[in-house]
Design a protein that fits this description.
InterPro entries: Homeodomain-like_sf, HTH_TetR, Tet_transcr_reg_TetR-rel_C_sf, TetR_C. With about 200 residues, this protein is mostly helical. It has two domains: about 60 residues, Homeodomain-like (Arc Repressor Mutant, subunit A); about 110 residues, Tetracycline Repressor, domain 2 (Orthogonal Bundle), CATH 1.10.357.10. Helices cover about 65% and strands about 5% of the residues. It has nine helices and two strands; from the N terminus they run ββααααααααα. Helix 6 packs across helix 7. The chain starts with a strand and ends with a helix.
């Protein structure tokens, strides 16, 4: 909405709602672009995250895409920000919670979204060092439920919790990301039992 102010010598036009465009994309535009971006990442990797490709898939103007997500790194960061982090409801038993978290992560790795997204982050990190913090952030998000459950088993200290969480999920990530194997769920559950024995 604009207001006009007229004097004898000049006419001034100013915006009542504030200058410029809104700070972020409209919610439906963001959902449309990020949904297309996730499909591209999962099928073709982070290199496919160009404004041109997103424009072709969504019909959203390239200028809008560049304005809100100027680089593939910005698209990846936005995807991480909206990524769901499903967590099973706590059973009240931290050991049972750890086993539930293992099953949940195994399912997410088996169904490929986590594995494919991590692969894309690894590839993007090798091409653009600015993407390394995004990869770390995503892995830390995967570790968080394990840290929480491990912290409820006695009081092992932050360093020990971190080591225990890594001992549980690292073999799963190596199998999926580096060896292209399916996850070994039984091995992961045995690792949980060993870690709990060491902490307890």
């Amino acid at each position: 909405m604009y207001c006009y102010f007229k004097s004898n010598t000049r006419c001034i036009v100013y915006s009542v709602n504030g200058p410029g465009r809104p700070a972020g994309p409209a919610a439906d535009t963001e959902e449309l672009v990020l949904t297309a971006a996730l499909k591209l990442v999962l099928s073709e990797g982070a290199a496919a995250l160009t404004a041109q490709r997103l424009h072709l898939l969504t019909g959203v103007a390239r200028t809008t895409i560049y304005r809100h997500w100027p680089t593939p790194k910005d698209v990846l960061a936005a995807l991480i920000s909206v990524a769901p982090h499903p967590t099973p409801r706590s059973t009240g038993d931290p050991v049972a919670d750890l086993h539930l978290e293992v099953d949940l992560l195994c399912d997410r790795l088996r169904d490929k979204p986590v594995g494919a997204f991590l692969r894309a982050l690894v590839t993007a990190s090798s091409a653009d060092p600015d993407c390394v913090p995004l990869r770390h952030r995503y892995v830390m998000d995967l570790l968080e439920p394990f840290r929480r459950a491990l912290g409820a088993i006695g009081r092992p200290g932050e360093r020990r919790i971190e080591e225990a969480a890594l001992a549980i999920i690292s073999p799963l990530l190596v199998e999926v990301l580096l060896l292209d194997r399916s996850v070994d769920r039984r091995h992961a559950h045995r690792t949980v039992d060993e870690v709990v024995r060491d902490i307890g």
